[in-house]
Specification:
single chain; alpha/beta; 13-stranded mixed sheet; 13 strands; globular; kinase; nucleotide-binding; transferase; ATP-binding
Length: 334
């Protein structure tokens, strides 16, 4: 187990040694608090786009299902006739220049796995740049858009926003409730009182704290051919190799178990790069990975490898609330 994995386990399961990190946590809180105060006291320091900006982010380190929700938001807005664009940091990306317009045929090394996945699934205009305000400007220079979604960026206060949506893993919650490095929080829990909506991934119902949404498996997709297979492709009890390089790999393994398969888990670091040799496991069994991992493996994947395609399903109350927000932000298009 890597150091990062041990630290995450300590954040969510507890460890007395975390007390030693209290001075660093205090320093971290002061820095993020000062950054937030500057934004609130002088909002003119942030770039205000001429179209509404919706930030989809989290206050915890690790996966919360952000990308599937962004895919849902894109498709939902497109069904309403809206022209949607996306900006992203492009974690781990090394593009030839910045900002960088992501195309479906680009290698993941140029743009990052999540931005590439979003473009390949939706065809949406997407720009990567750690400076998200610069990414928005560049995107608007190239495309006439009605709305921009910021993939992550809740703490990127150089970009003004009209809505903030925060995702939380319903099973893991906020861990020990402490900020980095003593806990998994990017900002103190009180920050949740200031956002527009909180969504709990895996919650069974809405609550006073936020809306429920879930990830529903819909198909298997073969990497080499793009062919969609039904979930009945493998019978109950099928043993298979399960590959996940995401923030919370266990959620993926648990999902495979709900489909009544018997996954042999192979957890990798979030945003991991892969080679064919790394993924040659014994015994020879079907291999299923996440869609985020698949965008980096298509070039060398042999026939038979597949990824599990999932679909975000937010609660009816959230859909109604979000439509109301769209009508408020874009009255001429409602």
């Amino acid at each position: 187990m890597s150091f990062a994995e041990r630290l995450q386990r300590a954040w969510y399961q507890g460890h007395p040694a975390l007390r030693l990190l209290a001075p660093l946590e205090l320093l971290y809180r002061r820095v993020v608090g000062a950054r937030r105060r500057r934004f609130l006291e002088d909002p003119n320091t942030a770039y205000r786009a001429p179209v509404p900006v919706v930030v989809v982010g989290n206050i915890t380190v690790g996966g919360t299902g952000k990308t599937p929700l962004i895919l849902w938001l894109i498709e939902h807005c497109q069904r309403r006739g809206l022209r949607v664009g996306v900006v992203s940091r492009g974690y781990g990306a090394k593009p030839p220049e910045l900002p960088w317009r992501v195309r479906a045929g680009h290698p993941a090394q140029y743009c990052g796995d999540e931005p590439l996945l979003i473009v390949q699934r939706t065809g949406v205009p997407l720009m990567v740049d750690p400076d998200r305000a610069r990414a928005v400007r560049a995107l608007l220079e190239q495309e006439p858009l009605d709305l921009i979604l910021s993939d992550d960026g809740l703490q990127h206060y150089r970009l003004a926003r009209d809505l903030e949506l925060v995702l939380i893993d319903a099973a893991r919650g906020l861990g020990n409730g402490r900020c980095l490095p003593a806990g998994p929080l990017r900002e103190p829990p009180v920050r949740l009182n200031e956002v527009d909506a909180v969504l709990f991934n895996g919650a069974t119902a809405d609550s006073d704290d936020g809306y429920a949404f879930n990830l529903r498996p819909v198909a298997l997709v073969e990497l080499s051919s793009g062919e969609c297979w039904p979930l009945s492709r493998y019978p109950a009890g099928q043993q298979l190799h399960a590959v996940a390089g995401i923030g919370n790999p266990q959620r993926f393994f648990d999902t495979l178990e709900t489909l009544h398969w018997r996954p042999i888990p192979h957890a990798f670091a979030d945003h991991a790069d892969y080679s064919l040799e790394q993924l040659k496991f014994s015994p020879e069994l079907p291999l299923v990975m996440t869609e985020k991992d698949a965008v980096k493996c298509r070039a060398f994947a042999p026939p038979g490898w597949s990824y599990l395609q999932v679909q975000a399903v937010p609660s009816t109350a959230f859909v109604t609330w979000f439509d109301d927000q769209l009508a408020r932000l874009l009255p001429d298009l409602s």
